Amino acid sequence: MAKITMKTPIVEMDGDEMTKVLWGWIKEILIEPFVELKTEYYDLSLPNRDKTDDDVTVKSALAAKKLGVAVKCATITPNAQRVEEYGLKKMWKSPNGTIRGILDGTVFRTPILVPGIKSYVPGWKKPITIARHAYGDIYSAAEDRVEAGESAYLLVCDGSGNELRRKPIHDFLTPGIIQGMHNVDASIESFARSCFTYALSENLPLWFGTKDTISKTYDHRFKDIFREVYESEFEAEFEKRGLEFLYTLVDDIVARVIRSEGGFVWACKNYDGDVLSDMVATAFGSLGMMSSVLVSPDGTYEYEAAHGTVTRHYYKYLKGEETSTNSMATIWAWTGALNMRGQKDGSPKLCAFAKKLENCAARTIEEGFMTGDLVPLFEREGVTPQKLESRKFLEKIAEKL
Questions:
Q1: Could you report the per-residue pLDDT of 95-104, keeping only the tens digit for each?
Q2: Hey, CA dihedral for 267, 268, 273, 276, is it positive or negative?
Q3: Which helix (H) or strand (E) holds 155?
Q4: What are 303's strand-pairing partners?
Q5: Which of 143, 176, 192, 266 is the most exposed place for a label (fewest CB within 10 A)?
């Protein structure tokens, strides 16, 4: 067959460790034999981020804004151990946090459901989409160590640096830590609008919760803005379709989620979405079975896997040992980006290829061929699951393509 052509490149953000290995194999085995792949490449591996003083991360995000579609491999956010391991200049910030700070928008994460893979929560029958606010909070916070005898204040100044007001945080009798984080109304409004729009596009209810009883200014602002945007822009359409917008405390939301059958969008603040998307993905079967896309107000889409770099498997791979690493979420990152590129460029063949690749990957598992993490979860009458090595799994999908 003639390869499918692409009119416009997508931004390709390469990453780290085992997911970087899978990244190359997915292109080699599943995409490049069928598509004349055009990408604007950025190496976001930890050594290159250190080498470029993290400038490569900023450049990749700006390129995404320019081209409109990006696909990102999982990357390392270094801690103290990683600084020593890689000999880094400093403990660089999360690349995802940097990219999301530039692109703004909302991250939507939806589990990839495949017949035969059972949920750890028996009542969950439908996907739960996590809508994660992708700006501010602890991901762009200032923080510091404080010594005994020091005091910390929340200080607000005008544009010239003149103090307007201050609030005491704590007088430290013993050493401790402080953190200052922020958000802005415009980003929260974009988050709310994105969540309501997405829920309508999927014809799903929207649930949202914060801790406004404790955080009477910060979290309460999220509550107020969601209510204002809903009542002024979306309430009539939600009521017309019989869709629910539920706001309650995040504690209550969590309890309701566990008791539910799924089938709704769960809006979460940045940190909540980070943690709870992993919980939802694992409960549905595996962190390797969660799609993720950042949707910006300007129409930029950045697709990625919702899991980490699979360090343990990477060290086995380096030793020449066999690995069986789930690549489904990374495949879905590529198919999401290719499908959106096809939509933006008016290329139905590219869109169709992306959907066929997803179907082939899901059918491969459904027919009993999968990576090791899924074998204990697989239950299908008359089918005995077979564990495949990482590359062999991709080659099995390629047979169907």
A1: 998 998 898 8
A2: negative
A3: strand 151-157
A4: 71, 293
A5: 143
Q: What predicted TM-score, i.e. pTM, was given to this entire model? A: 0.84
Q: Assign 3-class secondary structure to 374-385.
A: HHHHECCCCCCC
Q: How far is CA 214 from the centre of its chain?
A: 27
Q: State the Cα–Cα distance between residues 9 and 322, nearest whole angstrom.
A: 34
The CA distance from 106 to 190, in Å, is 8
Taking the CA atoms of residue 86, residue 88, residue 91 and residue 93 in that order, the dihedral angle to the nearest 10 degrees is: -90
103, 68 in Cβ contact below 8 A?
no
Q: Which residues contact 350 (CB under 8 A, 6 or more apart)?
A: 4, 6, 35, 338, 339, 341, 342
What is the radius of gyration, based on Cα positions, of the chain? 22
Q: In whole angstroms, give the CA distance from residue 325 to residue 317.
A: 10
**3-class secondary-structure state, position 43:** strand
Q: What is the pLDDT of residues 232-274, one digit of tens each?
A: 999 999 999 999 999 999 999 999 999 999 999 999 999 999 8
Q: For residue 366, give the amino acid letter.
A: E
Answer for the pair 401, 34: CB distance below 8 angstroms, yes or no. yes
As a residue count, the chain comes to 401
Give dist(CA 358, CA 205) in Å, integer: 26
Closest CA to 117 of 397, 401, 383: 383
Residue type present at position 69: V
The pLDDT tens digits for 296-344 are: 888 899 999 888 999 999 999 999 999 999 999 999 999 999 999 999 9
The Cα–Cα gap between 27 and 213 comes to: 48
Q: Is residue 363 packed enough to be buried (19+ CB in 10 Å), middle (13-18) or exposed (0-12)?
A: middle
* Contact yes or no for 132/274 (Cβ under 8 A): yes
